[in-house]
Amino acid sequence: MALEKITRVAGRAVHVPGNDIDTDRIIPARFMKCVTFDGLGEYLFYDMRRNADGSTKAHPLNDPRFNGASVLLSGVNFGCGSSREHAPQALQKHGIRAVIAEGFAEIFFGNSTTLGMPCVTASRVDIARIAAAVEADPATEVSIDVAGQKVSFAGQTVSVSIRDSARDALVNGRWDPIGELIEGAGDAAKVAGKLRYMMA
Amino acid sequence: MPKTLFEKVWDTHAVRKLANGQTQLLVGTHLIHEVTSPQAFGMMRDLGLKVAMPHRTFATVDHIVPTDQVSEPYADPLADAMIKELRKSCKEFGITFFDRSTGKQGIVHIVGPEQGITQPGTTIACGDSHTSTHGAFGAIAFGIGTTQIRDVLATQTMALGKLKVRRIEVGGRLRPGVYAKDVILHIITTLGVNGGTGYAYEYAGEVFDRFSMEERMTVCNMSIEGGARAGYVNPDETTFTYLKGRPYSPKGAEWDAAIARWRAIASDPGCAYDDVVRIDAADIAPTVTWGINPGQGLPITGRIPDPAKAAAADERASIEEALAYMKLRPGAPIKGTKIDVAFLGSCTNGRLSDFQEVARFLKGRHVAPGVKAIAVPGSQGVGLLCAEMGIDKIFRDAGFEWRAAGCSMCLAMNPDKLVGDQLCASSSNRNFKGRQGSPTGRTILMSPLMVAAAAVTGAVADAREVFGVASN
Ligand code: SF4
Q1: pLDDT at residue B471 in the model
Q2: Do the first three CATH levels of B5-275 and B288-466 match, i.e. the same topology?
Q3: Does B198 touch chain A if contact means CB atoms closer than 8 Å?
Q4: In chain B, domain spans
Q5: CATH placement of domain B5-275
Q6: Phi and psi (nearest 5°) for B199?
Q7: Among residues B251, B285, B419, B471, which is most buried (max CB within 10 A)?
Q8: How many Cβ atoms from other residues are within 10 Å of residue B47's Cβ?
Q9: pLDDT, tens digit (0-9, with 9 covering 90-100), for A106-118
Q10: Contact criterion met (CB < 8 Å) for B161 and A165
Q11: Which residue of chain B comes nearest to A173, CA vs CA?
């Protein structure tokens, strides 16, 4: 399985401010009544974006200026709570290809990496700078250099970080580990053979 | 070199290093449920893969099953379809399914321990973040996403980076009316909702030594709410006594060999930790949340925080956001906040001892007028034991609805939901915006006895006063 080498993600950005944005908020549980992930994009941040009667609320993702944004900016501990992969899937299906935040919850980070969606960490000050540039001109291209751990926008560059293992997996096109895991099947069987509880 | 339990379990399950530096880790036990697995089975079919070790995967239905209807087809066609899908996949791939017809169905984190599947020194994965519950047995248990469920089905392994270990010692004795739930809410309030990022938590100290397995499970369950991907307690006599004679526990000579292995897997004296936190049990009060994440908690005697007094702008903004959503007044006592719904159940507090403890005090009392109170056993097994002991009757007599096993109002994917901005006193684990099924519904997390106190008084209350616990 040849995977894309994700070295750079560039596009317009949208800022969804806030700390501890949990996966229930990213995709409410009632939209998980599905046996495929298709169609989840529509329900991204649903209850933040819509009132009970379905009418829209003020939310950056409802703001036409940010239509088509592919980079999401947010705060601390993004994606905390439930392990639902529906959250990064909904982001991806909505068109988001990378997230820049002050920090990520562990499971969300792993799930996103496995889908080839880089989650890079930046300082609060730098996120505010990117957000300000995007607010001033929504057409601003925000370009994430995954390998070099930098983000360029509106003539500025700030440094970001991404855990080594995730960076390696993304830039070398091995973010979906299934191929490698299958290669290790023989070794896995040997390890299992030493564990009494795993015997049939 | 002395090692922690985490390191020993990691070392015995590490298959090899992957190119990106992560480890291919063997998953000893894989648990699945109806909501996060169907897409994984879909991926398996698309890739033409087989389940590597079907005897090490166990399935049940919990998230979406109705608790007021036990015969199929279920009223919600989507729920019905998801359950049928899991049944079909289990059959196709040869996986043991604890379906409702088996009498063993329930919340996945209650079923594993109950069946004796959850054992010390093992690795466990499940597509649910509260998989950390199983750490109570000295297992290393992780919540995983759907693509990783595919990985585990296909290879019985997953790619993972090693975690650091933080030991959290709770010394001394808990005061009367303070429960395991208060211990973990206190830990999360103290260390923060992301304080555990990158760590596995090792819970220890006199409080944990004395805790029953069910109490240990309550604490380990909410490790993830503190940001820690896994949490565990070293196995001891309490663990072995709990496991003895369970359906999947080792038998005969195997049992003795297992005990020897399990003793050896505990953290060695003198092993090094990446961090150590000490908490005095006497400092822990019955704890309740006031905000929109489990770290926004306070003692029942406390006052709702005032954003004007926040130290930093950031903190002020989170308090304001939380209070606006919760419709609570800054500076007011949390005690006395009117509630509409009381929910007792979930993988945090839906076990026999939770209902038993509440029943002791609920007898002869009645749910306040206008409050909807529901009690949902975490498994068919728990429900059966409660029925045998007459506990269900005590709840019903007190005005609680007594339901069939499932996750129910913990995440409200079934018909049990809050309506509008109802406020729920809940024994579950998450008070996120909209968590209990209504986009404006509000949740206050607390121990089961505090839920009962709120139910009978119609407001957030101090169970010690309501039930005279201190003098008990
Ligand atoms: S009871 Fe709640 S937290 Fe536990 S598994 Fe079910 S939905 Fe998840």
Answers
A1: 46
A2: yes
A3: yes
A4: 5-275, 288-466
A5: 3.30.499.10
A6: -115, 155
A7: B285
A8: 12
A9: 999 999 999 999 9
A10: yes
A11: B20
This prediction's pTM:
0.96
Architecture of domain B288-466: 2-Layer Sandwich (3.30)
Q: Is B359 in the pocket of ligand 1 (CB under 6 A)?
A: no
Summarize the confidence of residues B449-461 as an average pLDDT.
98
Interface predicted TM-score (ipTM): 0.93
Can you tell me the distance from the alpha carbon of A192 to that of B295, in angstroms, rounded to the nearest whole number?
39
Burial class (CB in 10 A: 0-12, 13-18, 19+), B317: middle
How far apart CA B173 and CA B301 sit, in angstroms, is: 20
Asked if A183 reaches chain B (Cβ–Cβ under 8 Å), the answer is: no
Query: What spacing in Å lies between the alpha carbon of B174 and ligand 1's midpoint?
Result: 27
Model pLDDT for residues B74-96, shown as the tens digit of each residue: 999 999 999 999 999 999 999 99
The 10s digit of each residue's pLDDT in B123-147 is: 999 999 999 999 999 999 999 999 9
Query: Which pLDDT belongs to residue A35?
Result: 87
Which residue, chain included where needed, has tokens 């998450």?
B430
State whether A29 and B412 contact (CB < 8 Å): yes
Of A24, A37, A184, the CB nearest to B16: A184
B314: confidence class by pLDDT, cuts 50, 70, 90: confident
Q: Do B432 and A25 touch (CB under 8 A)?
A: yes
Report the residue among B126, B403, B410 best suited for mutation to probe ligand 1: largest number of ligand atoms under 8 A from its CB.
B410
Q: Please say if the pLDDT value at position B472 is more than 70.
A: no
A195 touches B at CB < 8 Å: yes
For ligand 1, mutation pick of B82, B107, B133, B354 (most atoms within 8 Å of CB)? B107
Is any ligand 1 atom within 6 A of the Cβ of residue B218?
A: no
Look at residue B199 and give its three-state secondary structure: strand
Q: What CATH architecture is A8-174?
A: Alpha-Beta Barrel (3.20)
Of B56, B314, B413, the CB nearest to A19: B314
